Amino acid sequence: MDEDRHDVVDGEIVDDAPSTAVAVPSTPEPTLPEPDYSDGGVPSFDFVRDKIENRYTTSVGSTELAGLGTENTAEALDKQLADREQAAKDRLAEIRRSLGQ
User: Fold this and answer.
1) Which of 8, 36, 37, 68 is the most exposed place for a label (fewest CB within 10 A)?
2) C-alpha torsion sign, points 54, 56, 60, 66
């Protein structure tokens, strides 16, 4: 009968009780000033400059994405729309004249 059961594994029962562990006292890490600030909490010049440059480039990028860059101001876009509407009206008038209306 043992010959028929090749998948049987021999083992022993182990308790789930935790073993006694040594508690390591936690030491608080020393607080270091942030790298861009002095010990007194004053930001460095480089940190302030980088922050200003980041805000500036973000605003320039969002303006360009909105299509309002240097050559595409709101006034220029309004003029393009007005020119396009006028060209459409002129073309429609030309078509009507050619049809004899």
Assistant:
1) 8
2) positive
The pTM of the whole model exceeds 0.70: no
Q: How far from the centroid of its chain's Cα atoms is residue 7's Cα? A: 54
Note the pLDDT tens digit of each residue in 80-98: 899 999 999 999 999 999 8
Phi and psi, residue 96, nearest 5°: -65, -40
Over residues 7-66, the pLDDT tens digits come to: 777 777 777 766 665 666 676 676 655 677 888 888 888 899 999 999 999 988 887 777
- Coil, helix or strand at residue 100: coil
The DSSP secondary-structure symbol of 39 reads: T
Backbone angles phi, psi at 23, to 5 degrees: -80, 130
